[in-house]
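Worked example (supplementary).
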Amino acid sequence: MAELAHDPYAENALDIMFPPPEGGHGGHGHHESTGIDNRKLGMWVFLSSEFLFFGALITNYLLFKGRDFGADALYPVELYDIPFTSISSFVLLMSSLTMVLAHSSLARGDQEQTRVWLMATATLGLVFISGQFFEFTEFVNQGLKLNVNPAASAFYMLTGFHGAHVVIGVLMLLSLWGFSIRRGGLSEDHGMNLELVGLYWHFVDIVWIALFVIVYLIR
Amino acid sequence: MTTEIAHDEHHVRHPEPKDYVKIAVVLAVLTVMEVSLYYIEVNVEGIGQRITVPLLLILSGLKFVIVVGWFMHLRFEKSFLAKFFSVGAVLALVLYFIALAALGAVHFFG
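After joint prediction of all chains, the assembly is encoded as:
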């Protein structure tokens, strides 16, 4: 800190790193002029790009959904099991609840509860992925392979990429859980990591909210 | 010494765990309504996609806003972030709608 005080830019740096208390929390060296932590802002920007990515995949799916590929063509809509997919949707929705409960537990300083909710979220994510895997297997067994027609390809691309995002989210959740076990709890920095993973996980849920309606429920 | 997560939000009362459970119940009810609409459209004559599709989109839009606002804490963040995300989302949706309309793919309305 002494060396920073002699730096002509130190005053700004110190102000940024340790802003005057506003009746609450101090800075943590990661704030921009927006007042939002760099890492959080970065995650929101990343999620915005993911929003565009999935928007493009959904648009692609809608373009091919209603096209005619011949009398013998097989379409995803003919094979949907709505009750099964509804249960999968409910599972993913509840995983968002457990994720936010993990965040809330950590904010209260309850490390044990945080681990419980993190593991619950990861488990629900794995249940969802298992359901997707089962569904894809059933579709393939009934003849709807990836390359059978563009509508099938678009369906698998869209739901497959979403599934991949869920898998990545589960890995991040298990990593956080592992950190917590190994270090006896999540530090303040890791607390921000939990918040970032939480944002990612909720976004994955939001994408499924859109997919479930657009792909499955709108015939 | 309790561990606290770094916050950038102004000091608004954040939901407590029981509030999150209530929000989850609301989301579950909205999901049930969506699935019900699907079966109503399939089984009830006269209820076509012109009625169910807008309702489904509204319900999913509500769920989207609830998850983003409460679970992702956007309503407790600085307004700059909410505006950044909202404006971007609206622009992206307009763009996709234009692309779909231009390519003649709005037939999903029935």
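Two points are worth noting when inspecting this output. Chain B touches chain A through 58 residues (CB under 8 Å). The first helix of chain B runs from residue 17 to 43.
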